[in-house]
Amino acid sequence: MYPVGRLDADSSGLILLTNDGELANRLTHPSFEITKTYRARLGGGNVGEPALNALRGGVELDDGPTAPARVRRVRGNLIELTIHEGRNRQVRRMCAAVGHPVSSCRASALGRCGWMG
Prior knowledge:
Layout: E1 2-4, E2 11-13, E3 16-18, H1 21-28, E4 36-42, H2 49-57, E5 60-61, E6 64-65, E7 70-75, E8 78-83, H3 90-97, E9 102-110
Parallel strand pairs: 2-9
Antiparallel strand pairs: 1-3, 4-8, 4-9, 5-6, 7-8
């Protein structure tokens, strides 16, 4: 069995398991740029446009800059963030870099169709 995606202990959502190694590789390898969407509740007060724009442009992390993300405020301090890289704890690190630590995170979609979650 091959897991598609990963969640840290503080995150929730679905993970796809498959016995097809090629499918798992195509869904997880960064070169295929498969999108992953998360809903994150953030600390640090309501999320303003400057923080959202910083996420949209990509942020500098200790292991280098991230690619631009699609991001929208759902309401108040709840955002939906779509990335295609999948670095370790990337959503949490990106949000912390713009001054909004993540208090909860849920993987909600994989790929364009949103069939995961």
